[in-house]
Every structure is written in structure tokens, then in C-alpha cells.
Amino acid sequence: MKSRTAILFIGVLAFGSFGLFVGAQAQDAGQAELPSAPSASQQQSQAPAPRQTSPSPPPSETSSPQTPSQPAPVSSDPVKPDVATPAEQPAEDTGKSQPPKTGNAPKPTSPEGTILEDDESLTTIRHTVNEVNVVFTVTDRHGRYVKDLKRENFKVIDDSKPAPDIRSFHAETNLPLEVGLLVDASNSVRDRFKFEQQAAVEFLNQTVRPKYDEAFVVGFDVTPEVTQDFTDNTELLSVGVRSLRPGGGTAMYDALYFACRDKLMKAQHNGPVRRAIILLSDGDDNQSHVTREEAIEMAQRADVIVYTISTNLSGAGHHGDKVLERIADATGGRAYVPFQITEVANAFAAIQEELRSQYAISYKPADFATDGRYRSVEILAQGQKGLRVRSRHGYFAPTQ
User: Fold this and answer.
1) Left if phi > 0, otherwise alpha if psi is -120 to 50, otherwise beta: which for 332?
2) Which DSSP state fits 115?
């Protein structure tokens, strides 16, 4: 009897243990099928998942559809640049439009496979040029160009101090010319546009020397448009001028800013060159994003002389003529105001003569500093009376 009772008691215990084991397994399986709490999912998406030392489970065992450890998708649409202003020098900030590098980006390695630190991966050699170049013209008391002067006939005043060292001096007729023709193609010049085009074509044919000089053509209304890029082929330049069509508003300052920054400053050349812009417009700007002074500053930074030809034929003191005169004077150029449409060709001829009557001087300032400051420049002619020198009034020192 006792043995029978003991066997029954052991059986009951075994059956109970088996039931508890099955229940625990079912409870675990049920918990594995429950979705994660929203707060837990959010916390996982905000914090990076810890690195697992054990092998990851196969894809068939993944129960949650969320993958917090994957990075968010990046849009492939290009970012449109904002309108250029002098506060944002786009010529120097081209890398800002690129997406920022992440902290997980691999560091550069040497050919042997060793990891290099950022400051050891590239050696930068900086060389500051402490030489200033100025292009200028000299006329006598009757306004005629004087072309036979020598180095000893000139004295340079830089930032109110005499320049102690003049490095070079020569006539500009021996230097290549890079010239930009900016033609106002807005509605305000429609009635005289054909004649202006013909005068511009004749100017380029007589000025650009094949295999020596280069020019480009830009028409502008609300935006600048390059109808012919840099070339020494006068036939292509003529086609670029004749392809211009008037229409729209006037963004003259934007066009000047663009031509100096994106064309002349970026042009590749093997030696010293002259840079000039001929601006054909009535001077009325109503669409630009940059101001007149910002366009002038960009021309000064690019060492560009701007010659302006007014297309305003009213004969009165037009506001646009004053604007064009300010641009030309600040860059060392000259403003022409024809009273008749036929005089536009005469203005082009006068510019051509001046371009062939220039001097160039290179000097070292007395207290040159790479501080980015604007410094005044004055070229004085000595040895003869009645000589008048016309040049730019200053320049911006480079920065380190």
C-alpha cells in the first residue's frame, strides 16, 4: 500500500513539472510575437545599435520590420545655389555645396596600409605674392596718348607711401589681351540694338589678334548669357554678338559681377595679361541681386578695367550715364557717352586705341601685408609737364 501511494505521488509531481515547463515555453513564444513599445522603438532609432560580438541571426528569424541601425536615405536631388553676393564668395566656396562628411568615413591610408591622420595626409605649400601690377595710360594736356615714356618717368605711391622697388615696366601693346564684351539685351535698347551689334562686331574684328588675344561675349537682360566663350576666332565672336536678342529687364550689375568672377578670374593663362570689359548699356538696372559697389569691388579684385559705352541718346544728364561713369572711373577705365547712334562706333574705336596705348608697371609696396585691406594706388608721371595718368585707384591685398 505504501509503495503504491509513493508511485502515485511521484507521477503527480512529474506531470506537474511537465505542465509548468510547457507553460513557460508558450509564454516565451507569446512574448516574442508581441510588438515593441513605441518608446522602445524610438529609443532604438535615436541611439546607435551596439556592436554584436556573436553572429547575427538569419533574416528569417527577424521579427521586427524596423531597422534602426540603417542610416536615413539621402535625397539625390541637386541643391540649387543661392544668388551670389560678395558676402559669400562663391568662387572660393565651391566645396560648401557638397554633403558633409560623416564621422564613419574611412581615413586615408598610405601605400603600406597604415592609417594617416588628416593633417598628415596632405602637405599644403602656400606662397604669397607681394607684387602689385597696375595697367595705366598717359595723355598730354590735349588728351593725346603718350607712348614713349620710360621707367624713370614714373613714381608709384602705394597706400600713401612711395614704392621702394619697381620690379618691371613695359608697354602693354606687347601683352596679350583678355576682353569681355557685355551687351545690354533688355527691352530698353531694342530700337538701336542692330546698330550696336554691328559696331561691336567691328570692334572685335579690329582688336582681337589671332593666337594672341582672346575675347568672350555676354548678353544680359534679367540674367547673363554667354553666347560665345573665350576664343581668338573673330568669326565665332561675330556669331556670338549677332545671336543676341533683346527682351526682358536689366540686371547689369549681376552681369558685370559674373563676367569678372566666373570668366576673367578663372581664365587660364601662362603669363601676364591685360583684362578689360567693354560694357554697352544705358546704365538703368532694375533686376540685379548685387549692388553697383559690389560689382565694382569684384572688378577690382579681378584686376579688370571696365570701359562703358552709353546707349542713352537723350542728350540730357541721364542717371544711367552717371552709373556707367562711376564704374569706369573706379576701375581705371573710361566712360563714353555718344550723342548719336553713329558715334557708338567711334567709342569702340577710341577704346581700341587706348588698349594699344597702355603701360604696365609691377612693384613691391613698402609695407605690404596680407590683410585683405583695400590699398590706394597713384601713378605719378615726372620729367614732363602736363602729363595725366589714368589707372585704377586701388586694389585689395590678398589674405593668407
Assistant:
1) left
2) B
- What's the domain count of the chain? 2
Q: CA quadruple 25, 30, 34, 37: dihedral positive or negative?
A: negative
Q: How many helices (H) and strands (E) does the chain have?
A: 8, 14
User: 258 to each of 78, 100, 296, 326, 373, how far by Cα in Å?
Assistant: 22, 27, 11, 18, 23
- Condensed to tens digits (0 to 9), the pLDDT of residues 27-63 reads 444 444 434 333 334 444 444 444 444 444 444 443 4
For residues 225 and 254, give the distance between their C-alpha atoms in angstroms, rounded to a whole number: 11
Q: What is the pTM of this model?
A: 0.67
Q: Are residues 327 and 389 in the same domain?
A: no
Q: Can you give the residue range of the structural domain that contains 137?
A: 132-171+361-396
Decide if 196 contacts 345 (C-beta within 8 A). Answer: no
- Residue ranges of the alpha helices (H) in the chain? 2-33, 38-46, 193-207, 234-242, 252-258, 292-301, 319-331, 343-355
For the chain, give the number of residues: 400
356: exposed, middle or buried (C-beta count within 10 Å: 0-12, 13-18, 19+)?
A: middle
